[in-house]
Amino acid sequence: MSEVLDANAGSEPRPSTVPEGQNNPLQKAITHNALIRAHGIAAFTMLLLAVTFGIVASLQFFLPEATSAIASWGRLRFAHTQGIMLGWLGNAFIAFLYLAVPILSGRPVISERLGWFLFGLWNLGVLLPGWLLVLNGYSQPLEWAEFPLLVDAAMIGGLILAAIQFLPPFFKRGFENLYVSSWYIIGGLVFSLMSFPMGNIIPEFIPGAAGAAFSGLWIHDAVGLFVTPMALAILYYVVPASTGRPIFSHFLSMLGFWGLFFLYPLNGTHHYIYSVIPMATQNIAILASTMLGLVVVIVVSNLMLSQRGAGRLAKDPALRFASTSVLFYLIVSLQGSAQANMGFSETIHFTDYVIGHSHLAMLGFATFAGIAGILHAWQKMADAPYHAGAIDAAYWLTTVGVIVMVSDLTLAGLAQGELWKAGAPWVVSLRASEPYWLIRTLSAIPITAGFGLLCYGLLKGPRGAGARALAEARATISQAGPSGTDQNHQNPVKALRMSYIAASVAGVTFFIFSVSLLGLLPQSTLNDQIALLAPAANLELTASEHRGRQIYAREGCAYCHTQQIRFIESDIERFGAATMAWEDSMETPHMLGTRRIGPDLSRAANTRTDQWHLAHLFAPRS
């Protein structure tokens, strides 16, 4: 069965259900292997550095004296999260695009010179200065947006260059012939460019809970509109390319695509359930989260059915990583839908359960998809080194490590949530968490070893061995009969050709609508609350209070102490009255964190003496 996307095959074009050809004559001419290698090597370099930051940060939970001299926990967390999303995944996705875009569109990317400029800007204009700045105390306290504004501007430039480099080949081809991976690439590049300024710049100018509403959108859109589309583009590409069989259903793939892009932008506020953000906004996010879980089931079912005949454990490592990524995607998405449930959220929000969820999303689903994309790109380069034994070992080490880490953090979060609800002293929850934190750090050993073996496997070994391994793996896959349900249906493209354009316009319009609904509308409601409830004389911060706030922001203190008391009984009994909109209406950017390692400090100034605060500054564990 041919995999070639042939735009001239037949008088009536149709959406292809397969991404590439076994003997595509264009591949060597239009793919830039040097750029694939550069971004691939940069991706794993950034991954190992980002993981190192995470390991050192995790050690501070039980060895603070030994590691705090390196950098504070907050600064390390800034470097860790941005390194994973932009350094590792960003480079991995771009490496994959240099293979996939020319094959999917039948046309080369815009310019190799532009590619090298993008490589330099992404790594030397964003990642390197971003890390140096946050580790030296220059940052913004916004989750998944910690790099300062100057770096944000460079990042927007990088996204613009990526759009210029990779989108025109698709536009020249025509939308009616696009394979589903192409749609995810287009959607990811367009919507990332739209959502990045919303989460990284707007909260710097909108104070308090109103700014947090925009941050909530970005926290979810960073995963939903950047990471997930690119990861799914890889999965929809690698699965049929590795098996030699088309995807199960083009209809289900497009249904999942539009479902994800219409629902993801509505999810963000579920990170602030029971907060001062208007309840109507929270309810929209809760409903969208539930519906999104159903859409993900459709996407996962389509991808799993597309692997029929490959066996329970695929022989090809790229397909094996992709298959595991699909499974992780199902689990993490159902987790997200459950976490949006108000009853469950009351228990697990702010706990390590949510941290386990985020690690499963970024280190499980997205990372395994990124590895699959790079491995498949390496297999397509005839002169690329490839060590099959090291790559096979890496799969098992990383899989076991991720499962142990996520399971451990999940159990830790459930234990923390129950202790908090029971009203136990805070130090009791900390002591109960220590064994889990130790296991979390130890689980990083097989994960890091796996990543190291992947680097070795792609830099050492026989050249061209990857292509031979892929051919051998595909020979073991059953080719009996078509795997898709769309093959016998009448060609739907003629009827749907205009609907693609209409859906694209609707998608952009709906994104703007969602930002208005979950960002601008809450701001209006919060302003009304502030005008009604704020004291007549709202005192400005003193000079020393400004200095304290700057320290609190640059060290990531709100990532431990939340600075928001929820409207639930257990929070109010432990910390005091729930946080009102007027209390942080002058704070730009906001400090409404989404995790509690230490207790909330919103009311601490009025419950402790000045002498206690001074002593705590120098001996916080006394």
Major sheet size, sense and barrel closure: none
Strand content: under 5%
As residue ranges, the low-confidence spans are 1-15, 20-29, 480-496
Helix percent reads 55-70%
Class based on secondary structure composition and strand pairing: mainly alpha
Radius of gyration: 24 Å
Q: What is the helix/strand order?
A: HHHHHHHHHHHHHHHHHHHHHH
Distance between the termini: 70 Å
Q: How many strand elements? A: 0
How many distinct helices?
Answer: 22
Average pLDDT across residues? 88
Task: Sum up the overall morphology in one term.
Answer: globular
Question: How are the SSEs ordered, and which strands pair?
Answer:
Blueprint: H1 27-30, H2 33-59, H3 64-67, H4 73-105, H5 112-135, H6 149-166, H7 168-173, H8 180-200, H9 208-243, H10 250-263, H11 279-305, H12 317-339, H13 342-348, H14 352-379, H15 388-422, H16 426-459, H17 465-475, H18 493-533, H19 543-554, H20 558-561, H21 569-575, H22 610-618
